[in-house]
Amino acid sequence: MNDTDISVGSRSEASVSGRVEPSMKKLEEGKPRKPKRSIGTILAPYLFSFPAFAIVFVFVVIAALNTFRLAFTDSTLLIPGKFVGFQNFVEVFHDEYFWTAMLNSTLYVVCVVPFMVILPLILANLVRGNSKIMGFFRTAFYTPVVMSAVVVGMIWTNLLDSKGLINSILETTRIIKHPIPFLTDRWLILFSAMFVTIWLGLGYYMVIYLTALANIDDALYEAASLDGAGPVRQFVSITMPGVRSTMVLIMMLSTIAAFRVFNEIYVLTNGTAGPGGEDITMSMLIQQQGTGIQARTGYASAISLIVLAVVGTMLIVQQIVQKRGED
Amino acid sequence: MGHKKITLGKVVQYVVLVFMFVLLVGPFVWELSLSFKGPGDNVYAVPPYVIPRTPTIENYKQVFRQVPVFHYMINTIIVAIIAIAGNVIFSTMAGYALGRLKWRGRNAMLALFMGTMVIPVEGVMISQFLIIRSIHLQNTLLAVALPGMVGAINILLMTNAFKAIPNELEEAAQVDGANVWQQFFHVCLPQVKGTMTVVGIFAFVGAWNDFLWPLIVISDEKNYTLTLGMNRLKGMFVSDPRLIAAGALVSLIPILIFFACFQKYFFQGLEQGGIKE
């Protein structure tokens, strides 16, 4: 179990290392008897995969199909509703709130993704190595990943408060005279939430990069050193090409995650989506429209469908970019 | 590389590492200090100070008095147990069928599972809620766990783990006359225990930290999970950072202990699959 040979990011999230336990080699070679195909043998694969299939089928396939159907109805939580064609979409596209959500979610992607792709790579380079101290840093940087965004949001609410630690430090050092309204200004809320997202995700992507870095041949660095290439030069000519496919993977993962942002903004704004709801995101919009006793499930499904379409487009673009890079 | 000489590069490296360490760990130190500060402490002092002048555990007592923290923890543990059992058992079973057995429909099934992996939860959660509602499970802990009971990524992890088992092992068992079921339990399962652990651990963390889905499906406070409870606590104590700090630490301690115990599996899991959730 310890000799995992690592292959994250080589193609897709499905790529998983092959592990071979050394103890298996001692097994004698033998000609397998033709297995009797009893009824149990024939049914086995279906029985084995049925529970997983049933749950995925109901909660993903049926749910997705139902989202598609509902998007074209005026159904609410209590009334099944009738087919209304594209009316929901017409309404969505005329809804200022929707465009605010789209803007915020898109800004989230644009601002967060570059940090998620670059910072963890730099960190991963800095914490490489087998020494105890590096192991300590790796663990410390990874720890926030296991925490819930709600609790982390509580912590940062305290820190970013107008009288919180950050403002207090800035005032002590006389950098500012008046506290910065991190949690009450429409734009600063968004940027604070982005900061929390990056803070939470750094360690996760760092570990993914570490596995990719481990696959780069050390001889390349040694040869570069002999040729007099400095650390920056080595980073650009050896490290970057070596982790290219991982970078694309992380770009995709962090893009989708950023577009779906919910927890950080919900918690930092106490569920209000900021002053006048200006900090709403796509996921919050779905949650607001689609839940509660007055839920407009049809309308919320139309928005869901748009989110699915945007995420689908991102995945396709990513595939094309990756294909082009391989040629 | 072998010599220990101090270079400019090394200095820069450690400066950055220490800075990141302060940025990532500093907030916890501050919260810890806040949570023990008593009425004699000015929590808004400029300049700020860390060591409480009137240390007290009153904040923690207050949190436990106002919010049934243990009750919410038990709810969360129930959800987590269902999620762990579902993910470990069902994805192991499916992984065996997909990774080791030859049958009609196998590729279609694999394609289905991979396809569902790219569907974001937010896109289908309203429909999921309607399904939960139509089977009258809304507002139950089972409903919180149900849609996440089998993660497609876990099925793929298990499938690949089963695929990696060398054929000779099974062939040897067949020579001994073992049937499919015996091969599963006695030959294959012991080989994938590590991956099963990884799946279980990530299922636990996912269940422990989930917020949006419980928020949608649970309305009754007595069925709140810990994240919902903490969100409510944050709303209640919005004016007292000491209590928010105490609440945050109380809900962090179990997951941090869990992380400390299973650390190596977290890193191993990321190496294998590269994905959480």
UniProtKB/TrEMBL annotation, chain A:
Q: What SUPFAM superfamilies would the database entry show? A: MetI-like
Instruction: Please state where this protein is localized.
Output: Cell membrane
Q: Where is the composition biased (Polar residues)?
A: 1-15
- Per its UniProt record, what CDD domains does this chain match? TM_PBP2 (cd06261)
Where are the bilayer-spanning segments? 43-65, 107-127, 139-159, 187-207, 299-317
Q: Which InterPro entries match?
A: ABC_transporter_permease, MetI-like, MetI-like_sf
| Key words of the record | Cell membrane, Membrane, Transmembrane, Transmembrane helix, Transport
Q: Per the database record, which ranges form the ABC transmembrane type-1 domain?
A: 102-318
* A Pfam family recorded for this sequence: BPD_transp_1
- Some GO term, biological process aspect, for this entry: which one? transmembrane transport
**What does the record say about its membrane topology?**
Multi-pass membrane protein
Gene Ontology annotations for the cellular component aspect, listed alphabetically: plasma membrane
- Annotated spans, Disordered: 1-36
Q: Where is the composition biased (Basic and acidic residues)?
A: 22-32
Give the record's family classification: Belongs to the binding-protein-dependent transport system permease family.
The protein depicted here goes by the name ABC transporter, permease protein
UniProtKB/TrEMBL annotation, chain B:
Query: Where does the chain cross the membrane?
Result: 12-30, 72-98, 110-131, 137-157, 198-218, 243-262
Record domain ABC transmembrane type-1: where = 73-262
InterPro entries in the cross-refs:
MetI-like, MetI-like_sf
Question: Which domain of life does this protein belong to?
Answer: Bacteria
The GO annotation for biological process reads: transmembrane transport
Signal peptide span: none
Q: Where in the cell?
A: Cell membrane
Q: What is the topology of this protein in the membrane according to its UniProt annotation?
A: Multi-pass membrane protein
**Gene3D superfamilies xref list:** MetI-like
Which UniProt keywords are given for this protein, alphabetically ordered?
A: Cell membrane, Membrane, Transmembrane, Transmembrane helix, Transport
Name the PROSITE patterns on file.
Answer: ABC_TM1
- GO CC annotation: what is one? plasma membrane
Question: What family name appears in the similarity comment?
Answer: Belongs to the binding-protein-dependent transport system permease family.
| Record-given protein name | ABC transporter, permease protein
Query: Where does this protein come from, organism-wise?
Result: Bifidobacterium bombi DSM 19703
